[in-house]
Amino acid sequence: MDEDFACFLAEFGPAIDRRDVPPSTIARYRGKLPDQLLAYWDEYGWCGYADGLFWTVDPQEYEPALEAWIGDTPFMEQDAYHVIARSAFGKLYLWGEETGDTLSIFAPASTCFASPPDNDIDRDFEMRLFFGGMSRKGIDVEGLFAPALQHLGRPAHDEMYGFVPALALGGALTLSNLRKVKAVEHLVLLAQLAPLDVTVM
């Protein structure tokens, strides 16, 4: 285990709800995603961390959400993106085949965070930094995860905490408005409620 992933595990704890990644899937993404990520998939599978606050995911399962959010944007003309991880609240972490870790989407607020690619960095090293730089505080939303976990229970690998009504429809950023919902379906729904607001980092 490299020291970056060791730091990630120290922060996020042991994995939950592990799903093994088929060799055929690893072969499908060879050359599209960094070998470092494929090595993590092979060793740890797709799973949740920190009681479901953060999830590594099957990019194929999230293609409908990816298409719903950026399918009609210039981003799709710039690179081929894949969803490699998500948060319990619907933040999507995208990886560009050529540009790496340059795009993320916080679906509840219809916000996209874009940063220029670093073409001088090794993509495998960049993937290590992606995990090594994660923090629970940076993923949590207004400190709502712990009370949501207690109130709603742990989300499964295909579930997330969604605001109902959605923030785009005037819903409030409060525990009482959180529900456990199917992740991909809810993310696709949110994409239809408000235009994507792009913030350049």
TrEMBL record:
Q: Which domain of life is it from?
A: Bacteria
Tell me what this protein is called.
GAD-like domain-containing protein
